[in-house]
Amino acid sequence: xxxxxxxxxxxxxxxxxxxxxxxxxxxxxxxxxxxxxxxxxxxxxxxxxxxxxxxxxxxxxxxxxxxxxxxxxxxxxxxxxxxxxxxxxxxxxxxxxxxxxxxxxxxxxxxxxxxxxxxxxxxxxxxxxxxxxxxxxxxxxxxxxxxxxxxxxxxxxxxxxxxxxxxxxxxxxxxxxxxxxxxxxxxxxxxxxxxxxxxxxxxxxxxxxxxxxxxxxxxxxxxxxxxxxxxxxxxxxxxxxxxxxxxxxxxxxxxxxxxxxxxxxxxxxxxxxxxxxxxxxxxxxxxxxxxxxxxxxxxxxxxxxxxxxxxxxxxxxxxxxxxxxxxxxxxxxxxxxxxxxxxxxxxxxxxxxxxxxxxxxxx
Amino acid sequence: xxxxxxxxxxxxxxxxxxxxxxxxxxxxxxxxxxxxxxxxxxxxxxxxxxxxxxxxxxxxxxxxxxxxxxxxxxxxxxxxxxxxxxxxxxxxxxxxxxxxxxxxxxxxxxxxxxxxxxxxxxxxxxxxxxxxxxxxxxxxxxxxxxxxxxxxxxxxxxxxxxxxxxxxxxxxxxxxxxxxxxxxxxxxxxxxxxxxxxxxxxxxxxxxxxxxxxxxxxxxxxxxxxxxxxxxxxxxxxxxxxxxxxxxxxxxxxxxxxxxxxxxxxxxxxxxxxxxxxxxxxxxxxxxxxxxxxxxxxxxxxxxxxxxxxxxxxxxxxxxxxxxxxxxxxxxxxxxxxxxxxxxxxxxxxxxxxxxxxxxxxxxxxxxxxxxxxxxxxxxxxxxxxxxxxxxxxxxxxxxxxxxxxxxxxxxxxxxxxxxxxxxxxxxxxxxxxxxxxxxxxxxxxxxxxxxxxxxxxxxxxxxxxxxxxxxxxxxxxxxxxxxxxxxxxxxxxxxxxxxxxxxxxxxxxxxxxxxxxxxxxxxxxxxxxxxxxxxxxxxxxxxxxxxxxxxxxxxxxxxxxxxxxxxxxxxxxxxxxxxxxxxxxxxxxxxxxxxxxxxxxxxxxxxxxxxxxxxxxxx
Lengths: 363, 620
Known about the structure:
The complex is a heterodimer of chains A (363) and B (620).
Chain A: H1 3-10, H2 49-60, E1 71-75, E2 90-93, H3 99-109, E3 114-120, H4 121-127, H5 129-138, E4 142-148, H6 183-189, E5 194-199, H7 203-215, E6 220-225, H8 237-240, H9 245-248, E7 249-251, E8 259-260, E9 266-270, E10 276-280, H10 281-284, H11 300-306, E11 317-324, H12 330-345, H13 350-355, E12 359-362
Parallel strand pairs in A: 1-2, 1-3, 3-4, 4-6, 5-6, 7-11
Antiparallel strand pairs in A: 5-11, 8-9, 9-10
Chain B: E1 4-7, E2 10-18, H1 23-37, E3 40-46, E4 61-69, E5 82-85, H2 88-94, E6 103-107, H3 113-118, E7 135-139, H4 141-148, H5 156-161, H6 163-174, H7 180-189, H8 194-213, E8 219-222, E9 231-237, H9 238-253, E10 257-261, H10 268-274, E11 282-286, H11 290-302, E12 306-311, H12 313-329, E13 333-339, H13 356-361, E14 371-372, H14 379-394, E15 397-403, H15 404-408, E16 410-414, E17 434-435, E18 441-442, E19 468-470, H16 485-500, E20 511-512, E21 520-525, H17 529-541, E22 547-551, E23 553-555, H18 561-566, E24 570-575, H19 580-589, E25 594-597, H20 606-619
Parallel strand pairs in B: 1-8, 2-5, 5-6, 6-7, 10-11, 10-12, 12-13, 13-15, 14-15, 21-22, 21-24, 24-25
Antiparallel strand pairs in B: 2-4, 3-4, 9-16, 14-23, 17-18, 20-22
Helix pairs in contact in B: 1-6, 4-8, 6-8, 7-8, 9-10, 9-14, 11-12, 17-20
Protein name (chain B): 2-oxoacid:acceptor oxidoreductase subunit alpha
Domain Pyruvate:ferredoxin oxidoreductase core (chain B): 518-581
Organism (chain B): Yinghuangia soli
């Protein structure tokens, strides 16, 4: 065990309570948001939801108490994927859709790093869909922040795999024909161990989800609803408008009965055929409400919750942590296999390896 | 009965049967016995892409050719002098390759009317006189095997399956091969099934004894050990040598090796092999696809490992964008392409060298990548180390172009001393490398080494060197995003200059021209070395004058290339493609290269090349 492990498990204070980061060296220096800002000018469109997410991440990272040289942000292509340039950590802006694969190579060879992937709905779910699902099933120690604005921004406004059917865009003047992905359902189906959803404009909620994701050993997928004010403005307005937000947003809290609404007048109950329904608490009674269990091994509840929201109207959209279960982490398994083999056979000897067992000598 | 023993200098044997008959195993074992005996040898496995094509059909025939001799040889042989045919399909598929007078050992048990009809024999070729030009040994291999195993408590099917070991025993007797290693091998292979192990050993011995007692084989042959340079030898295939080269590169660089790979013929064996060597700090990651394979390798390189991805041509096509990223990131990365017949899926199990231009140019933008190509199976070891040396020193992706013939073929390999291998250690950046005007020290990820033009390798975890890299064009020095015209022009040129500059750091192109006054030069690259050298030998043996040069580095070419090419009146470029090296040489050196090409999925024959060379010599 390294010293980093010992100190992280022992001391309270920054970094404590993040079991996924026990092998990442800690710092004693006091960090602030400023330490995580790079010298690069941020070049998103004015009013873009990405600014809020960047600020939330930069504001949250000091909590981890990690040496910032041991933090790496890896992104693909798209507006959100410019993120690493603005972080004063190690970073790589890679190619379209491949960030989870690149991050897998880094994380599985360097357990002393905290590796974050920043991606968008096109990057993660269209061109990079394959890498996303395989990272999730392997449970590599990656924190994937999926900025979902339901549109292609950097290519100027085509529909994305999360756009609602019928969406009129530059490439679909008569409306899109595609049925959208629900990223949370997809992740749960792909054997993800941690799946959450949050909203760019809700700094407090976003930070709380980041905190739980950072603590999770293995892959954490965080879907962040993010407003593209240029090509898809207002896509999540119902979840943000003070008049509607409380009645359409379902805030999930582990161990609590699922209630929502301005006066907590609505609740989630079991419906027919395994689905969940929204009901008025006054009619069904408190005891009928479903109690959220993010730690349930069986993904059935998490999945049913992910189906509750209407992706077009945003009504009854659960936010928070859907699923948070423990499963062996890929990087740890890989390191353990190397260590076990080295213990069993000793450190490899190159001369005897290349000679093999069947040689002859010519004088 | 005392049998006659003849001394001969070389033999080419081809074992052929159904893909389920165990011909590759039989060939491997015979090769191993031959290697242990000390002959020089070269092998050519040839098998269908289907795992089990329909039994008894022509597409289902699998073969293994072995050339062994009492002297140094260069190829698996143009034509077999001995064919072992386990069924009518194997006979039919191979007979046209045999010279008159060749020996044919056939398993007569398989020559039923139905089996013969399946491959178009209307009458029995063993009886109708159509094989009169050959020396036929008709042996009921299956019956003899089953009879020899009567005492064993095994099924008839299991007994029949040992017929390849009976054949191996017979051939081992015929050529005086040592048998100990095969017996040990069988016992180990079937350790969990002792009865099967014993039955196979018994079949093997029965085959040997059959040779000794039957009147069908009046003569046996001895081929003296070859006088190779002194040293300790082993037999090795190209894929194994390449795998060991990768392990050795990691050891000599004192870096972990990270292989990201997706299974593909004929490269998968490298993934299999490296997965066995975790105690050498070798990580293997079987990715979800080709792109993830190279992506993970590149991610590991970013983290300070020697990243490697292994594939074949179709995989390279998928990896192209990531290779471009590696060019832009300027990180070390090895891309191993074990070439096979193309385009598209092409001929998965057959050899070709048609990815040269893909390796050279197959990316968007100006994206130069150094290329190294091994020339023999054993050379795959050294070529892998050389490719790693360039990747690590110049912080660049490097192509290593092997092919199906090198991958599966084998030869005796003189085992190198580990201490003689190059030292590949690198220094990671640990300190800021640039002073600003105000005197403050900063880290510039794209500030280059003046000599190599390589940029510093600063791995995550290094305090004070936090930086961001990416595929967008970067400002010279700082590495910040930069779209300025002059900067892009400069960066494109400096990346090219870095790769071009490697020419100063590689051995010059060596020319073999024993008389010093040849007017014709034969130039090749990769696995054609053996056939070209054998063809050149033949021409010289008949008094012809010809020079030979063989490229190991194809990008950049060695610094003396122009000088070499200019010295000769005619330059012949034989390739297993439609003239890819020839195109490069013509374009770069304005040489009127004569391309000689074939894409049959098989290596060149020495005789064929000798004819081509002779024709050109006569035309000068």
